[in-house]
Amino acid sequence: MERARMALFAAALAVAAILGLSPPNAEEGGQPRLVLTVEIDGAIGPASARLLEEGLAEAKERKAEAVILQMNTPGGLVTSMREMIAGILASPVPVIGYVAPSGGHAASAGTYILYATHVAAMAPGTNIGAATPVELGGLTPSLPGEDGKDAGKDQKGQQPAPASGDAMTAKITNDAVALIRSLAELRGRNAEWAEKAVREAASLSANAALEQRVIEFVARDTAELLQVSNGRIVEAGGAKRPLATSDAVVEKVEPGWLIELLSVITDPNVAVILMLIGIYGLVFEFSTPGAVAPGVIGTISLLLGLYALNLLPINYAGLGLMLLGLIFLVIEAFNPTVVLGLGGVTAFLLGAAMLLKVDSPGFELSWVVTGSAAALSLGLALLTGSYLWAARRRPSRVGARAMHGLPAEILDWSGGEGHVLAQGERWRARAAESFAPGDTVEVKGVEDLVLQVERRKPGDGERP
């Protein structure tokens, strides 16, 4: 009997080993379980999306138990937000969204991303919401009660109905509502409040979000977050499993040099400055061939600026106007007309106003930068033009015009032509009169590399 019991116990252990069953807090292969942390502090943009993508890939490769996505963001670009949501939904590694530290928030795009995570948590003193989409240069849906009337409600006062002129705003808002409701239904969270956050820009504190089933936990720090998340059943990669995070080792995913570069150059103001440096660097290189440095710096800056703008939702008509304005200013510098200079500044400013399709937090084009760039470009064009104008008024120093009025010495002469010495060089010369070797004459013109000369009048001094 005892032998039978031992055999059954051994068989149970073998089955457990084959199925890979283990208690939630156990270690795998003698190594502690791993949780990776991805921190996003600032606007959601291409750099944020790239950082999360790399974090999820590393978590999958290292077989991490979970990824903590710690956010403190005012929002950002819709394109980057959707990339991050798609990555979270497709990740085989569970993602724990965590709004932290205290005093932080997950507004606008951050709200959608938190709704997409497998587990949502907030630190005390944080808030979430204000997810109304801001697109097309600042169009936002009218909120109930604005302008002293509820023009957006139908006769029953149930659902806001946008005016006919706000069709695009309504389409953007309804698309955002559909997205956040689908995420709420997927994760079993409060879909009604999610829609309210989009339509009415509603916000909640951490405790209120917990009460209204917007999040699952309130945790003071990462250690507490791991404790309260331990054992929670989540579905990731098409399978449900409990989280084993209580004794996990936490490692932070550090952004690489490419992500650091993206976070800098995808600022629209930096991208515009890079384009200016690039264009004027190339102009200086073409105007002074062989300088090398302006051409190298200009080419690199221009390519970086164009790459950054390619990652941003820009209006290509605005970009075209900005480039046209810069071309006008360059032409103005080499051929002063005033009209081209004023037209160039006008085109540059109009293009800057039209450049970005969105007005998202952290991605606004500063008018200080734009105005300064336009003023500097105009100033450079006027300064260069003034130098060119002054150079045109000076006497010619090379060419046929520079020879006019110069003294020359007759070397030999016969039959109305001969050779003269002018500026240390031997020239063929012609004249309507005869001269003797050693006579001094004056150059009156140049025709087919032959000097036209005449007798120098007594008392004429040399031309300075």
Spell out the key features of this protein.
single chain, 464 residues, alpha/beta, 2-enoyl-CoA Hydratase, Chain A, domain 1, OB fold (Dihydrolipoamide Acetyltransferase, E2P), 3 domains, six-stranded parallel sheet, five-stranded mixed β-barrel, 17% strand, disordered N terminus
What's the quick description here?
This protein has helices at 2-19, 46-61, 78-90, 109-116, 167-187, 191-199, 206-211, 222-229, 257-265, 268-287, 293-311, 316-334, 339-354, 367-393, 400-403; strands at residues 34-41, 66-72, 95-99, 105-107, 119-122, 127-129, 203-205, 217-218, 233-236, 239-242, 249-252, 407-414, 417-422, 425-430, 440-447, 450-455. By secondary structure, the protein is α/β, with parallel strands linked by helices.
Layout of helices and strands:
Elements: H1 2-19, E1 34-41, H2 46-61, E2 66-72, H3 78-90, E3 95-99, E4 105-107, H4 109-116, E5 119-122, E6 127-129, H5 167-187, H6 191-199, E7 203-205, H7 206-211, E8 217-218, H8 222-229, E9 233-236, E10 239-242, E11 249-252, H9 257-265, H10 268-287, H11 293-311, H12 316-334, H13 339-354, H14 367-393, H15 400-403, E12 407-414, E13 417-422, E14 425-430, E15 440-447, E16 450-455
Parallel strand pairs: 1-2, 1-11, 2-3, 3-5, 4-6, 5-8, 14-16
Antiparallel strand pairs: 6-7, 9-10, 12-13, 12-15, 13-14, 15-16
Helix pairs in contact: 2-3, 2-9, 3-4, 5-6, 10-11, 12-13, 12-14, 13-14
Distance between the termini: 128 Å
Q: Could you say what the CATH architecture of the largest domain is?
A: Alpha-Beta Complex
Biggest sheet strand line-up: 8-5-3-2-1-11
Instruction: Spell out the CATH superfamily of the largest domain.
Output: 2-enoyl-CoA Hydratase, Chain A, domain 1
Q: State which percent range the strand residues make up.
A: 15-25%
Number of helices: 15
The CATH topology assignment of the largest domain is: 2-enoyl-CoA Hydratase, Chain A, domain 1
Whole-number total of structural domains: 3
Unreliable residue stretches: 1-6, 8-28, 136-159, 161-165
Global morphology: elongated
> Structural class from helices and strands?
alpha/beta
- Strand tally is 16
Helical fraction equals 40-55%
